[in-house]
Design goal:
The complex is a heterodimer of chains A (about 210) and B (about 220). With about 210 residues, chain A is an alpha+beta fold. Helices cover about 55% and strands about 10% of the residues of chain A. Chain A has helices at about 50-70, 85-95, 100-125, 135-145, 155-165, 175-195, 200-210, and strands spanning about 15, 20-25, 70-75, 80-85, 165, 170-175. In chain A, the strands form 2 sheets. In chain A, strands 4-3-6-5 form a 4-stranded antiparallel β-sheet. A two-stranded antiparallel ribbon of chain A has the order 1-2. In chain A, α1 (about 50-70) runs antiparallel to α3 and α3 packs across α4. The longest helix of chain B has 28 residues, at about 90-120. The radius of gyration of chain B is 22 Å and the shape is elongated. Chain B starts with a strand and ends with a helix. Chain B contains 9 helices and 7 strands; from the N terminus they run ββββαββααααβαααα. In chain B, the strands form 3 sheets. In chain B, strands 6-5-7 form a 3-stranded antiparallel β-sheet. Chain B has a two-stranded antiparallel ribbon with strand order 1-2. Chain B has a two-stranded antiparallel sheet with strand order 3-4. Chain B folds into 2 domains: about 1-40, no CATH class; about 40-200. Classes of the chains: A alpha+beta (about 210), B alpha+beta (about 220). Chains A and B meet through β2, α2, α3, α4 and α5 of A and β1, β5, β6, α2 and α3 of B.
Chain lengths: ~210, ~220
């Protein structure tokens, strides 16, 4: 850091996460409340690093059964077939709609996994006090926040397939346990992204500056 | 010179936001986050869009999205039908999530936004519960996934199209319109503007705020 960049926390100012009002907050003060909206004030999101790690680990554990267990059983005249998420992608590809196969592959497999890696990378660099590419890391965080919802795609695909393909005994579709784990991965990664605080990325630069003084 | 100091919510940098021209916006000079916007008439537009979205939402949910026919039999489904099928097949957790993201959250977002916008028009200041509702609107917006649902429906349709004839229903067109209206609402909505005339928590808080140097750049702008 070349120029001195004043940040709110070292100046004793906290931004209300609820209404965006900037207030004075004493570091030693017990609990302060925002004068405008009455919500609790804090400099950073509460226990951001621990919470995000916990949610990432939980999501990573659920990611395994989400991909191994079948998400849906399709019953046709010729018999029943269990499909995992990847089977669904392969089936879309085989029926000739490769653009859709690609969209489902990205939304269901690549987005959840890259979210986990991206958040883990952000946490590790914050914990190591990295000073490099802060702007890029904030941008990475914004992408993670933005794309998270698209992982829900497969959950909707399965529900509407199940809702429509109900012509027993001709054909039927049933959801399987895999979709519960998959939905859990989506929800946990969304919570993980929300619990991380991007301001932590910039805190290490500030503490370095103080050390040098 | 009014003090219009703000802290960037993404990088905590303190900076002064200049007076913005109409349709102007201020970006954080360190991380590029949008710090303030000046959108004249934004919330009137949002209210109009919200009323439209409410009407379209009812149509999208009341009529079937699509149906399939095979071997002389027909099945159709509405939006909530997707969640209901999951529920009946014993997958209640997923059903609840689908119901939340496809129906409850969009409905909540539209309703709460309408209430907030109407209540915020009260003169001279909006009641304190408007602030609380704003928080709920934000929460509902995060979980409202109409656009993801729509893509999910399209993928499901293409998967099924091999097995049976697919018929598109009125609900589908309404759902498509709803997505556009929801997106337009999200772009136009300006919660900052509402916060400037929400009543503060305690009486005299404004005076206290001045003495403890609490800074609200919106207030300062006026």
């Amino acid at each position: 850091m070349t120029a001195r960049e004043p940040m709110a926390m070292p100046s004793g100012l906290a931004l209300c996460k609820h209404c965006g009002l900037l207030s004075k907050l004493m570091p030693t003060h017990e609990t302060s409340y925002c004068l405008r909206c009455g919500n609790e004030l804090s400099f950073r999101r509460h226990e951001a690093i621990q919470r995000t790690w916990a949610l990432i680990v939980a999501a990573a554990i659920c990611y395994i059964p989400a991909n191994i267990l079948p998400v849906m059983t399709s019953i046709t005249m010729t018999g029943a077939e269990d499909d995992t998420i990847l089977d669904g992608v392969v089936m879309l590809y085989a029926t000739g709609s490769w653009p859709l196969a690609l969209i489902v592959l990205i939304a269901s497999v690549m987005i959840p996994m890259s979210k986990l890696f991206a958040l883990a990378y952000l946490l590790v660099t914050v914990q190591r006090g990295s000073l490099k590419s802060n702007r890029e890391r904030v941008q990475l965080y914004r992408i993670v926040e933005f794309i998270g919802r698209w992982s829900m795609l497969d959950v909707f695909v399965i529900s509407f397939t199940v809702a429509l393909v109900q012509m027993k005994p001709l054909m039927a579709a049933q959801p399987q346990m895999g979709i519960v784990f998959f939905a859990a991965v989506v929800v946990l990664t969304i919570f993980a992204a929300q619990s991380f605080d991007p301001r932590l990325i910039w805190d290490s630069a500030n503490s370095m500056e103080n050390r040098n003084e | 010179m009014p003090d219009n100091l703000v802290a960037c919510p993404d990088c905590d940098l303190l900076q002064h936001v200049p007076l913005l021209p109409p349709r102007g916006k201020a970006l954080c000079c360190r991380c590029g986050k949008v710090l303030a916007t000046n959108k004249p008439g934004a919330n009137e537009r949002t209210l109009a869009l919200a009323i439209g979205a409410a009407i379209v939402f009812v149509i999208a949910n009341a009529f079937p999205l699509m149906g399939i026919s095979a071997a002389g039999r027909e099945v159709d489904t509405t939006i909530i039908g997707g969640a209901w099928a999951m529920w009946q097949e014993g997958n209640q957790l997923t059903a609840a999530l689908v119901g939340l993201c496809a129906v409850v959250a969009p409905a909540g977002y539209i309703m709460i936004t309408m209430v907030v916008l109407v209540a915020a028009r009260r003169y001279p200041s909006a009641p304190g519960w408007v602030g609380e509702l704003l928080h709920w609107a934000e929460l509902a917006q995060e979980w409202a996934m109409a656009e993801v649902m729509m893509l999910g429906i399209l993928v499901a349709l293409i998967k099924i199209a091999d097995l049976a004839t697919v018929v598109i229903g009125l609900g589908m067109f309404a759902a498509g319109t709803l997505i556009a209206l929801l997106a337009a609402m999200a772009i136009n909505f300006d919660p900052e503007e509402i916060w400037t005339h929400v009543q503060w928590t305690d009486d005299g808080a404004r005076l206290l705020a001045n003495s403890t140097q609490t800074i609200d750049y919106r207030e300062a702008k006026k």
